[in-house]
Amino acid sequence: MHEFLPEATFADKQSKVRTFLEVFDADAVLCGISGPDLGVDEATLAVAQQLGIESYALQSFWGDVNQLSGVVPKHAFVLDDEAVRITEQRYPQIRSVPIGSIKHADFKAYDAGALRALHRPGLLSSGETVIVGFYGQPILEVQGYFATLEALARQLREWRREFKLIYRPHPKESEELRTKTWQLFEQAVGDRLQWDSATDIVQSLCVADLVVSVFSTCGFDNLYLNEMAEQPFNSSVYLWFDADMIAWWQDYSGLTQMPLLSEGLLLSVDKEEEILPVFEAGLKPEIQQVLWRQAKVHLPDPSLAVQKIIDTLVEDLHAAI
């Protein structure tokens, strides 16, 4: 696919897409939503409009549509009901179909309970009963991020629970940020801190009692692991109280509220003084049950996502004949 290298102009991409669609005499196109620039996805949508071809796009974030080309898809496959609401509010001309997160379709294959039973015991030292997983993000330069971590460290220093803090850096975290984060947490909790040695993110999430981050998608991953389990086993918590951090996210996402929070799918800390009370709430089985039931209501089964896409395409194309 050398024709679609990034340095190709948008006009070049459209030309290649047009040739492809005309050769195959396409009735519909299905593409992603790329960004922040104009990619093959946007070229495909533009050409589809020019040729009168039905266009469908896969949305991976609530309400996200690339408008740079001036063309949007006629139909969008979106994450959940909240994504439908946000997308229709922003783009009433787009028909939104909730299908769940294709990324999480294979989570059905995991037995969270078995993974938890297998890997958790070796992580706890004598007397420790709670595992707090902290999931870093590569945004040291963002005003408010490290201030949020400093607030967490202050509160953990005062927590009377016997806990283990496991830090899993984001793959893109700089060495500077990893070192700063480790030193900050080490000063707060001492030898109760350790690096996350899990081979993959699923194992890491399964052993934790609290999945904590500023707003990492790990919290979303954890929602699906719980939703697919026979019973909930932990809680996701977002540290969502620093005004600078929230302002940056709002500008970045174009949203005023975090969808996962507004849907009541995970726990939110609204100010530093609430960190420990929210942690305590997240450890309660009855709270975990509430989050589990909310996820089942709001998150479409991702294992059905591909079939929903196929069914929608077939029904639409048959209706057009």
Task: Outline the structure in words.
The protein has a six-stranded parallel sheet with strand order 7-6-5-8-9-10, with helices on both faces. A four-stranded parallel sheet has the order 1-2-3-4, sandwiched between helices. The longest helix has 16 residues, at 305-320. Strand 6 (163-168), helix 6 and strand 7 form a beta-alpha-beta unit. The protein has 321 residues and is an alpha/beta fold. It has 13 helices and ten strands. Helix content is 45%, strand content 14%.
Annotate the secondary structure layout.
Blueprint: H1 10-24, E1 28-31, H2 40-51, E2 54-58, E3 75-78, H3 81-90, E4 95-98, H4 112-119, E5 130-135, H5 145-158, E6 163-168, H6 175-189, E7 193-195, H7 201-207, E8 210-213, H8 218-228, E9 235-239, H9 243-253, H10 259-262, E10 267-269, H11 275-282, H12 285-298, H13 305-320
Parallel strand pairs: 1-2, 2-3, 3-4, 5-6, 5-8, 6-7, 8-9, 9-10
Helix pairs in contact: 1-2, 4-7, 5-6, 7-8, 8-12
Biggest sheet descriptor: 6 strands, parallel
**Mean pLDDT metric:** 93
Indicate the low-confidence ranges by residue numbers: none
**Order of strands across the main sheet:** 7-6-5-8-9-10
Proportion of residues in extended strands: 5-15%
Fraction of residues in H or I helices: 40-55%
Overall geometry: elongated
Count every beta strand, where a strand is a DSSP E run of 2 or more residues: 10
What integer value in Å does the Rg equal? 22 Å
Category from helices, strands and their pairing? alpha/beta
Query: How many helical stretches?
Result: 13
- How far is the first residue's CA from the last residue's CA? 32 Å
SSE run: HEHEEHEHEHEHEHEHEHHEHHH
